[in-house]
Amino acid sequence: LTYELIGSGKTKNINFKGESDAVIVSGLIYIILKLFNGTKINEAMGIDAMAELSKLGLHEHLSSQRSNGIRAMIERIRTILSSIWLNYILSRTRKFGNKDNLSLSSHVES
Fold first, then answer.
1. For 1-36, how does the pLDDT look when each residue is reduced to its tens digit (9 = 90+)?
2. Which of 28, 49, 85, 87 has the smallest C-beta neighbourhood within 10 Å, fewest atoms?
3. CA-to-CA distance for 36 and 52, rounded, in angstroms?
4. Rounded-to-integer distance, Cα 103 and Cα 91, Å
5. Of 19, 67, 77, the residue nearest 47 (C-alpha)
6. Which helix (H) or strand (E) holds 107?
């Protein structure tokens, strides 16, 4: 799983890339990445990928191993997003001395 940031500051959009040799897994990766790609970091952090995937009813047709793989990929994406957002907040805090009163709790889900 790799990613690219496009734009600057709060207007940065993220695009993830992932692949697999298995056709079914490639399709699952495509669906997951479609949920996140092209969104702003703070918007992507608000995406409930598991809820969106459950709307498709895929979990009923996947093995537990594939379901665990999906959860792991979504968790990895969320970790990447949180790291990018944290780095952005810290850079703004250092640059502006927190005069914007930036708060992580208002941007990072617990």
1. 999 999 876 678 999 999 999 999 999 999 999 999
2. 87
3. 11
4. 13
5. 77
6. none
Question: How far is residue 110's CA from residue 101's CA, in Å, rounded to a whole number?
Answer: 20
2 bridge partner residues: 17
Q: Would you call 2 helix, strand, or coil by DSSP?
A: strand
- Separation CA 106–CA 70 (nearest Å): 27
3-state secondary structure of 29: helix
Residue 43 CB neighbours (<10 A): 13
**Distance of alpha carbon 41 from alpha carbon 5, whole angstroms:** 9
**Residues 107/85, Cβ–Cβ less than 8 Å:** yes
Q: What are phi and psi of 23, to 5 degrees?
A: -65, -45
Torsion (CA) 25, 74, 17, 64 in degrees, nearest 10: -10
Task: Give CA–CA dist 37/47, Å, rounded.
Answer: 11
